[in-house]
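Weekly modeling sync, notes
Attendees: AB, CL, MP (scribe)

Item 1: holo prediction request
CL wants a bound-state model with geranylgeranyl diphosphate before deciding which constructs to order. AB pointed out that an apo prediction alone won't tell us much about the pocket. Agreed to run with the ligand included and paste results into these notes for async review.

Input as submitted:
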Amino acid sequence: MSGDFQDWMTSVQARVEAALAECLPRAGIAARLHEAMRYAVLGGGKRVRPLLVFAAGELAAAPEDALLASALAVELIHAYSLTHDDLPAMDNDVLRRGRPTCHVEFDEATALLVGDALQARAFELLAAPGLIAPTRQLKLLATLARASGSLGMAGGQAVDLAAVGKTLTQPELELMHAMKTGALIRAAVFLGAGCGKTALTDSRQAKLDQFAKRAGLLFQVIDDLLDCTASTATLGKTAGKDKAADKPTYVSLMGLAAARDYAESLRQEALQSLAGFGAKAERLVALTHFICARRF
Ligand code: GRG
């Protein structure tokens, strides 16, 4: 990782971290809920989706305030999804980011409400007046809503829950992940570039979307690899969960070596999609390598 990219990443993460802490309520009438929301969001996390928002924003010289609102919105949706995913009715996990999951630290009802409230807060932030031209802002809101809903993340989660104990074909597995993990990553990239004052040309937008789809899938294949190769201590969440829960993954479908090769081919495809953007795509290129090199 170049020093320049490391500096950029640290600076974006610090800005996002501070803004996340600022945008979530403290105390008040629903003090316990607010405390749990802060617990779910502020306890670590790589902030990959906010980094993608900011990196994609460089393609369109997007203004900082719109990028920050988009980054926060996407990260709050992500934090809500993890909180709900960990619930006993779903993945039933007790460890997240090296700490007890939200329902363990608080209780199940509170964890449900945390997800609900984070989702609402995400859209409230992205709807802030004056971020960008209203018609373009509406497009960002609609994109994030669609990516989060039954045709995106929530739908992918439903397919995932129904797939336990089944053997999926590669196209079926791919579609599930495109929805469950990929849709939000794709939305992060779309929002970042969409914050620019002028829209990308249709062909550039298509190339960027191609990148986002490959990067989303790459993120998931790496996640599957880490689940069976890394330790619980390194991951900060229970390792080996996919196998224990009899979940179809890229590793169960194709084996460890082939899953590694597949990740490498996805990396190459993602990078090829960015070729026409030149130096403006430098951060997205570095983030693609970062996604591959991540250890947790
Ligand atoms: C409950 C509606 C609903 C959806 C849940 C995202 C999700 C859908 C489930 C999480 C299951 C999972 C482990 C998916 C693999 C990819 C993924 C989202 C990993 C966690 O994201 P990271 O690595 O986490 O970005 P940090 O902690 O760094 O934010």
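Recorded for review: The chain is about 70% helix and 0% strand.
Action items: CL to compare against the apo run; MP to circulate these notes.
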